[in-house]
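[Automated response] Your request has been received and processed.

Submitted sequence:
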Amino acid sequence: MDIRFIAGFAVIAPDPAASRGLYLDTLGLPLEAGAGSDYFHSEGIAGAKHFGVWPLAEAAEACFGSPEWPKDVTVPQASVEFEVADPAAVGSAAAELRAAGFELVHDAREEPWGQTVARLLSAEGLIVGISYAPWFHGTD
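Generated structure:
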């Protein structure tokens, strides 16, 4: 697996308004919501490709297709995504993770916003994504 960089980090927010109170209102991070979403994020914070406050309901939807986090699955505290070279590399990385004994939350797929990602839940309770986001590669 050829990880190029950390593509993004997001806190998982069971109470998005309270989390925004810290990150947006108090710390003054330049976070903006996506269209039709409570996911506040920025690609404009020095030292980070992407930082976000990801509502738990939206994380559940992305991982499991439902706004409810499964009761028998550890509730994550954060999400980290590792960037690979291209969309095909996401599928290869997913296969490598499965071969190493890791259970994926979902296999490689293209999200509506154009990112290709496969996700797993780590032993630490993090959503770990292997991703390809075309906007981080300049020519895509």
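Summary generated for your ticket: The beta strands are 5-13, 32-33, 40-42, 51-55, 78-83, 104-110, 116-121, 126-132. The CA atoms of residues 76 and 84 lie 23 Å apart.
If you did not submit this request, please reply to this message.
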